[in-house]
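BUG-479 | component: ligand-complex export | severity: low

The export step for glutamine jobs runs without errors, but we want the raw record kept on the ticket for reference. Input record follows.
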Amino acid sequence: MELKNLTIKKFHEGLINKQFSAFEITKAFFDYIEKKDSEIDAYLRLTKDLAFSQANKTDVDLANGKELDILAGIPLAIKDNILIEDEPTTAASKILANYRASYDATAIKKLKSFGAVFLGKTNMDEFAMGASTENSGFKTTKNPYDLERVAGGSSGGSAAAVAADMALAALGSDTGGSIRQPASFCGVVGLKPTYGAVSRHGLIAMASSLDQIGPIAKTVEDAAILFQAIAGKDEFDATSVNYEYKLGNAKKLKIGLPKEYFSGGLDKETEKGIEEAIQNLKSLELEFKEISLPHTKYAVSVYYIIMPAEVSANLARYDGIRYSQMSNVSGQMSLRDIYFKTRGSGFGDEVKRRAILGTFVLSHGYYDAYYTKAQKVRQLIKKDFDEAFKEVDVILTPVYPTPAFKIGEKVDDPLKMYLGDIFTIPANLAGLPAISIPVKSKKSEVKGELPVGFQLIGKPFHEADILGIGQRYEQLIYA
Ligand code: GLN
């Protein structure tokens, strides 16, 4: 069985028809990762003992005649800001280099209960702050299509692992585009669920009003299966919602094209890709309509005020006392020295920049001018979507202004890096579900060409609409 041809359904069929065991496939993935990941750097750590014991359990269940869940034995890669009990978890930060998770994130607990297998923890930008994994405290993940380019970020490790066939699918997290943008750069599917659809319990918090865990997969169908498995109300996350996802009928939906997203600034390849996606969708008899989201131009500014404000609050807990100690700190030092040493050497530049910016916008005298104002504009951005969704069911946009950029191209210019997030941030600010889907099927990818994704944004808790259109799109281009 070729690893690269596996989807969740194909794996499941192969498993129950005894074409292979879960153990064999897990081992095959590890053998391949050992060969391939030295050039990609998608994984921070492999979780072999855990993976083999999970795979064995599936094989024993099958041998005992138990009915297996569709996810039983499925080898997954997990972003390193999602807790797996007893496994080291760093969020790619040196400050957590010695931390081991004391419990399972709810998404992990659910996947475990279905029998999924976790191959390892993937690289990311430190605490999910970034768009290229270049802010990782440990290494930069390379794009499987061109090793001189970034895999995107912050979930670049998860996207690259799936794209390079080093995992069947993965979990990432998305605060301002971190699932969708790397998915687009790596030619895979990435879904950011509606805010509240998936529990954030056990996700290391970046900006709590924006963060969501979601799947990264080779196909829309796989993303849908994983989403269904992790969605739902959780007593440990008060913002989670009781929600049963069912795949809808995507036939009669109307798609909006927001003119603000197409008014210049798009790279040629991306523009061509988005045009191709629209033509393909038109051939599915989906209707299009131009719409307006007039406050789009404020989205980046609003995000880069609200997000750092929440970051500064969430990162206050890393004081060198809780969550493990760094090696340059000892119990003999004064508390003040411990704080300074820990935070000074444990956090990278980007994390410090955001913690400082966030503290500033929340400080007395500036709170109203920046933070309160940004919250008001956030409401206007949300209202734009409410209005648009009176006319259309789904909104189509680019994911990123360009295909994957070169490693080093933007890392010294934070503003340049931030501006690229323009198309993904609005869905987080408004709490909407959004998916990135590759324009072309992997097999039709011309050598040397970089993948481009298009984005579908849906109404709150209407994942079925964007996944439904996505599945029809996929059937068309894989036909
Ligand atoms: N690129 C965005 C940022 O740097 C998004 C990050 C994310 O979604 N975690 O904040």
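Assignee comment: Attached the raw record above. DSSP finds 15 helices and 13 strands in the chain.
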